[in-house]
Design brief:
Elements: H1 11-21, H2 23-41, H3 70-90, H4 93-121, H5 128-132, H6 153-159, H7 166-176, H8 194-237
């Protein structure tokens, strides 16, 4: 595939035009942000946790192995930095815009699906006992035997969000799986997604088919004109 003209479409020359063309895409992206915020504000489903179930939920309450701030750094900022560097090399605002838009869509759609499942399932974390009873004294309902937590509500709330893993989905699905839409970086077409080159191929095939059809039509008209002029020429001979 031939290289595109570099430096022809920059943020200064075509940035506003690209943003206006994809205004609806950014509106949907903003809607996903609102949904993601709502899913993190609402209370998740509180699954029944009986006293006899606490045996597997007494792991010590510790900080995350991968800090929370590191997730957006790996899932968003690192790919964004690579995309930005590539823009300064190619000076193509279309490539920059579509890459950032696709990255944000993949991250937010993954986040919405992950948090929606977390809230709906309400699976307790392995350290739920210490989240629920920070003093180590379990309190249970005398009738249902369900937990009656005495800890901080915010800590307990996160204790019901064990499945699926947000770290795994954000970093693996949202970032690395997004790269599957692109050829390898060492490929000649590594600068664009597969869908773009498929569209170009279909467009070129359509143009070739159109030109072939036009050429066939011209040949048909030429043959018909020769056939119609035959008797006239013969009449002139006599």
């Amino acid at each position: 595939m031939p290289e595109i003209q570099l430096g022809a479409h920059t943020v200064r020359s075509h940035g506003v035009k690209v943003a206006r063309t994809h205004m609806h895409d950014w509106f949907i992206l903003l809607l996903l942000v609102v949904i993601e915020v709502i899913l993190n504000v609402i209370e998740p489903f509180h699954r029944f946790v009986g006293e006899d179930m606490m045996t597997d939920m007494t792991y010590p309450l510790k900080d995350n192995s991968v800090p929370f701030w590191a997730v957006p750094m790996l899932a968003i900022m690192l790919p964004f930095f690579v995309i930005l560097v590539y823009y300064f090399i190619r000076r193509d605002v279309y490539d920059l815009h579509h890459a950032i838009l696709g990255l944000l869509f993949s991250v937010l759609i993954t986040g919405v699906i992950t948090d929606a499942i977390k809230d709906a399932v309400g699976r307790p974390r392995p350290d739920f006992f210490w989240r629920c009873f920070p003093d180590g004294k379990g309190v249970f309902d005398p009738v249902t035997k369900d937990v009656m937590c005495t800890g901080l509500k915010s800590v307990i709330k996160e204790g019901y969000k064990s499945f699926p893993s947000g770290h795994t989905s954000w970093i693996t699905v949202a970032s690395f799986c997004y790269l599957q839409f692109f050829p390898p970086p060492y490929d000649v077409d590594g600068w664009g997604p597969h869908a773009y080159f498929q569209m170009l191929a279909e467009s070129q095939n359509g143009n070739i088919n159109g030109s072939n059809a036009q050429q066939s039509e011209l040949q048909s008209v030429h043959v018909d004109s020769q056939h119609d002029s035959g008797p006239i020429l013969e009449g002139r001979r006599y």
